[in-house]
Design brief:
The chain is of the alpha+beta class. It has 5 helices and 12 strands. The chain has helices at 3-11, 95-100, 143-163, 220-224, 238-242; strands at residues 39-40, 42-43, 49-50, 61-72, 82-85, 107-109, 112-114, 117-126, 133-139, 168-178, 185-197, 212-216.
Length: 248
């Protein structure tokens, strides 16, 4: 293996994209807690992405990293009592076992008796125009958010493997329909618009002077113009609508 190959291989193993998507042993509901720079993003019940002031975020953002962590919560609310941040590729601890070890600390949440330990994933973003940072925490028990993050990680991992470069996706914060046992609802959806590279690594905001666009994808409008107007388009299947053929 030559020096260039060694460097590329090492770079591609640095973050939560290259390490791949994973699930904890027990997908209890998590979510929240601080520990990241920037503004916290939330996907609302009416399918909007908002900041803590409930202002909708419409800008394209670069997805910098995905962090897995496990947190211990108190039934009385407040900040997490303890946080375990996993390294990229590190195996999830057995959350069920952690909860079983502290039976006196269980509490009722949304009508369900739950243990204090819960897993969550955090996607880190940045706005390349304003250099504002954002972070989006989502419980591992949230099916829609988990599907969204799994898709983004899969796309990023495959693109890096194909190009042999440490590329990052610039995404549009969007939503898409997800079938549920109650008929269906909108779930978070991150649409990749560009692939870029930059210097500085994942521990800091991108250095604008080093940003290079590797590939720019067509907008939906550009794609739609290629559909013949004289022929009715076939309705996509549920598999196509969800961008995923694996039930979650």
């Amino acid at each position: 293996m030559n020096e260039v190959t060694k460097t590329t291989t090492s770079a591609l193993a640095l973050d939560g994209f290259s390490a791949g998507y994973s699930d904890p042993f027990s997908a209890d509901e998590g979510g929240g807690g601080s520990g990241f720079d920037g503004l916290k993003l939330k996907f609302t019940n009416d399918a909007r992405w908002v900041n803590p002031d409930e202002e909708e975020i419409r800008a394209l953002l670069v997805a910098l990293n995905v962090v897995n962590r496990v947190q211990k919560w108190s039934g009385s609310g407040g900040a997490p009592l303890e946080t375990i941040t996993l390294k990229p590729g590190e195996r999830w601890p057995d959350i069920g076992a952690l909860n079983n070890a502290c039976p006196d600390e269980w509490y009722t949440k949304f009508g369900k008796f739950v243990g204090p330990w819960a897993g969550e994933r955090v996607v880190l973003f940045a706005d390349l125009d304003t250099m504002a940072g954002y972070w989006w925490p989502s419980p591992t028990g949230n099916m829609g958010a988990s599907r969204c993050i799994r898709n983004l990680i899969g796309q990023t991992k495959r693109k890096r493997s194909l190009l042999g470069q440490l590329v990052f996706p610039i995404v549009e914060l969007s939503h898409t329909f997800m079938q549920t046992s109650y008929g269906g609802r909108e779930r978070p959806h991150l649409i990749v618009r560009k692939w870029i590279t930059f210097g500085g690594g994942q521990s800091a905001l991108p250095d604008r002077s080093t940003i290079q666009v590797v590939e720019e994808l067509p907008t939906p409008a550009a794609v739609e113009t290629t559909i013949p107007t004289t022929q009715e388009a076939e309705r996509p299947s549920l598999k196509d609508e969800l961008d995923d053929d694996i039930g979650f």
